[in-house]
Amino acid sequence: MNDFEIRKLGEENFDEMKEFFRDVFTREPWCDDWSDDKQLSSYIRDIAGCFNSISFGFFEGDDMVALCIGKKHHWWGGTEYFIEELCVRSDLQGRGIGTRFMAEIEHEILKRGMGQIYLQTGRGKPAVDFYKKLGFWEIEDTVCFFKEIKEE
Fold first, then answer.
1. DSSP characters for the chain?
2. What is the pLDDT of residues 97-119, one digit of tens each?
3. Cα–Cα distance measured from residue 21 to residue 73, given in angstroms and rounded to the nearest whole number
4. Distance between CA atoms of 10 and 48, rounded to whole angstroms?
5. For residue 143, which phi and psi values (nearest 5 degrees)?
C-alpha cells in the first residue's frame, strides 16, 4: 500500500484545510451547503484556531488525503481528543485510508497525554459503521440538543 505520513497542521495550512473540508462535505452523503466562503472560513477558524486545537493531515507525498480537526479537552474522566471533523478525500473513501489515519491519530494523541477520543456524527451516516469498526462505542445516555431561534 502507498506511503502515507501524518502531519500536524497549523495556521499556515488554513486554506488547504478549508478547501479540503469543503470538497468532502459538499458531496454525498453529507451534501452540506458550504457555498458561503465567509461562513466556512469562520467555521474552520472556530474549530482549528482555538487555544487547544490540534489538527492533523494525512498525506501521500504533497497531497492531503485525509483531515482531522480537533482539540485537547480536559474532562473529569481524563484528557481526551475531541474530534470536531474528520474526513477522507471522497474518491479515496473505502480503501482503508481512514482506518490508517485514525491509528496514526491515536498514536499522536497518546504522545500528547490524551487517552480518550470523543466525537459526534450523524445517525444513519456511513461514519457510524466506520467508527464502530474502529472500536468506538455509542454513548447511549447522551442526547444532543439543538434549537433554532427566530424573531417572532
1. ----EEEEE-GGGHHHHHHHHHHHHTSTTT------HHHHHHHHHHHHSSTTEEEEEEEETTEEEEEEEEEEEEETTEEEEEEEEEEE-GGGTTSSHHHHHHHHHHHHHHHTT--EEEE---TTSHHHHHHHHTT----TT-----------
2. 999 999 999 999 999 999 999 99
3. 22
4. 8
5. -125, 135
